[in-house]
UniProtKB/TrEMBL annotation:
Protein name: Segregation and condensation protein A
Gene3D superfamilies, alphabetized: 6.10.250.2410
Lineage: Bacteria, Bacillati, Bacillota, Clostridia, Eubacteriales
InterPro entries named among the record's database cross-references: ScpA
PANTHER family hit by this protein: SEGREGATION AND CONDENSATION PROTEIN A (PTHR33969)
Record has Cytoplasm as a keyword: no
Gene Ontology biological process: chromosome segregation
Organism: Harryflintia acetispora
Length: 243
């Protein structure tokens, strides 16, 4: 059976571990005692190994870097030979510490909401309309607004003129008209019946011709150009057209 392994989740990285060791043992971050720090750092790694925890490579890399700093500091050197080998580590720790503080501050401000937002600022309202329109757009908007206003008004009287003032022509009156033409002449031109007639008269005349053909009083020639009288009969009285 494969043994269980646990990853280190207590620290986000080697810098996090070093900061906690410095705080725990009250070391000076600006004058780090490398021997004491390396001893505590390696003790933490040995503890993880005893508990069969998986150690990330970055922790081992930092351990080798601490050993290098301790070795350089043990070697005899003159003050003018170079900078303190701990300076780079101190700068990295201070930068990491500042990032931790900024993250904690943002976390406090963002608690309970989905995102971090700054407080609202007051701005003076500018009521100047700055959008530029083409003349055609303005004209279209004007006519559109004018049309919407007119829809709420009652329709003018002229809107009903085509319905109220239109003459009503009866079919019977047009039957008398057609028969009167045929009594004078035995046949008449079909299209001539519709000359000088408005639409109501044309419709009534056409219906009258259909009625006469149905009653077999007239017939149309094969070419459809003329009407021919088939049998005579009393001419119906012309009814008075209703205005």
């Amino acid at each position: 059976m494969e043994e269980l392994k646990f990853r280190v989740q207590e620290y986000e990285g080697p810098l996090d571990l070093i900061l906690q060791l410095i705080q725990k043992h009250k070391l000076d971050i600006y004058d780090i005692e490398i021997s004491a720090l390396l001893e505590q750092y390696m003790a933490a790694i040995d503890e993880w190994r005893e508990n069969q925890l998986d150690i990330a490579s970055e922790f081992l890399e930092m351990a080798s870097h601490l050993v290098y700093i301790k070795t350089v500091m043990l070697l005899p050197r003159h003050e003018e030979e170079g900078e303190d080998p701990r300076k780079e580590l101190t700068g990295a720790l201070l930068e990491y510490q500042a990032c931790q503080r900024a993250a904690a501050l943002l976390g406090e401000k963002n608690r309970g909401v989905d995102r971090f937002v700054r407080p609202p600022e007051e701005h003076e309202a500018d009521m100047t309309y700055t959008l530029i329109h083409r003349p055609g757009e303005l004209l279209g908007a004007y006519f559109g607004a004018l049309g919407r206003g007119r829809r709420h008004l009652p329709p003018p009287k002229t809107a009903f003129s085509g319905i109220v003032s239109r003459r009503v022509v009866s079919v019977a009156s047009r039957i008398a008209f057609v028969l009167s033409k045929l009594y004078r002449r035995a046949r008449v031109n079909f299209l001539g019946l519709f000359e000088q007639s408005d639409r109501p008269e044309m419709v009534a005349t056409f219906m009258a011709v259909l009625e006469l053909i149905k009653d077999k009083r007239v017939r149309a020639t094969p070419d459809g150009k003329e009407l021919v009288m088939l049998r005579s009969g009393p001419v119906p009285e012309t009814t008075k057209q209703e205005g």
